[in-house]
Amino acid sequence: MNCKKIKINETEILLSQAEMPNFIEGLSVLTRKLSQIEDVSIAICWAKMKEKIYLVARSDDKDVDVSEILKIVGGGGHPQAASAVISDMSFEDIESKLLCSLKKNIRKPILAKDIMSYPVKVVKENVSISGVDEILKKYGHSGIPIVDKDDNLVGIITRKDIDKAIGHGLSHAPVKGFRSHSIVRAGPNTGIGEIQDLMIENGIGRIPVTDKKKIIGIVTRKDILRFLHGRSYENLLELFPGKVKKILKVISSVARVLKYNTYLVGGIVRDALLRIPNFDIDIVVEDDGIRFGRELSKRFDCRLESHQKFGTSILVLKDGQHIDIATSRVEFYKSPAALPTVELGNIKQDLSRRDFTINTMAISLNRKNFGEILDFFGGREDLKNKKIKVLHKMSFIEDPTRIF
Questions:
Q1: Radius of gyration of the chain (CA)
Q2: What is the 3-state secondary structure (H, E, C) of 166-235?
Q3: Together in a domain, 182 and 319
Q4: Which end of the chain has the least Cβ crowding within 10 Å, N or C?
Q5: In angstroms, rounded to a whole number, what is the distance separating the alpha carbons of residues 298 and 253?
């Protein structure tokens, strides 16, 4: 039996072939044993016995459906086990077709670095319980990571822990005495499946992502649910006029050079879904919007206006087209109608500042998922059902100007 291992999008696959004069039962058992011995996620074995070729596939990866993979050779079955009987193909043709189907059906794995929220709000270990309580109230978090003087992750404390400490009259005590020392963590390249398993096994709702003890992000249950159920792979950019598409591709190119994440936001996304023409280009940058505007202006014949205080830039092209650029941010309101406290945030936090769910959608302009729709708050479903839904109950109380 001739066996070889290949890797497609970080998924290890075993391909095995054999030829024998007589029919022998047990190819499915052999395929399962080989996958266990070779420690691979997918095993595909085929053997010519008499005049026919019998093929069996097994998958231990819940994201890879081998019944879909085998359709190319006339096979079928279910996601974890499939088979085919072939009479008119050579071994070379079978392998060639399988490789094409494997590449088509095995997507690049979703990693912690793809879905984590960052930057992460942390507290130093010498901050008091009352101080942490105020931070949790301000940000609406149910827990927060704790770091030492060198910014190394040393623990996590939850809202429940804080409430207990306050209940015992220990508001003045430093948080380091109440932290959880047993930290379940993930690396930037940890797969989403492994993160889900860690959450279930440990009964936790958040996992910090660390690189050499430094916290670089955090993944919560909401991050996973929003990522798995809040994305659409329809490429709406194909609906835009050529001029707009050309501008967006230039924006994507500049973002790639600067290593910034950029997104198309606002009414143009909503109207694209409604098939309504809209030429208002609003961009959110997960970094320095001023620098991004400056670099982007070098690629156009335009006038640049920057507002350092707000982290925004406006490009006015020669034909009058505006490109509005904003740094992604998160806002906090101390009282109704008060001016917000603004901090840097990520795209999810920035979209959460919107008024209605139908205005919270974005389109990625990043190279790895260019044209993908981000819909964290169910805006697309509300648009489909012709619903105008307020994003937050306190939305118009915090900022009454949103109603205009």
A1: 26
A2: HHCCCCCCEHHHCCECCCCCECCCCEHHHHHHHHHHHCCCEEEEEECCEEEEEEEHHHHHHHHHCEECCC
A3: no
A4: C
A5: 12
Q: What is the mean pLDDT of residues 120-130?
A: 94
Type of residue found at 36: Q
The SS3 assignment for 289 reads: helix
Q: Tokens 């996601």: give the residue.
A: 79
d(CA 376, CA 391): 11
Residue 93, C-beta contacts closer than 8 angstroms, at least 6 positions apart: none
Across-strand partners of 215?
210
Provide, rounded to the nearest whole percent, the portion of the chain with pLDDT above 70: 91
- What's residue 284's pLDDT? 96
Same domain, 363 and 352: yes
Report the predicted TM-score, pTM, of the whole model to 2 decimal places.
0.58
Task: Name the phi and psi angles at 396, rounded to 5.
Answer: -85, -10
Phi, psi of 373 (to 5 degrees): -85, 135
CB 12 within 8 A of CB 5: yes
CA nearest 383: which of 403, 358, 360? 358
Rounded CA gap, 192 and 109, in Å? 8
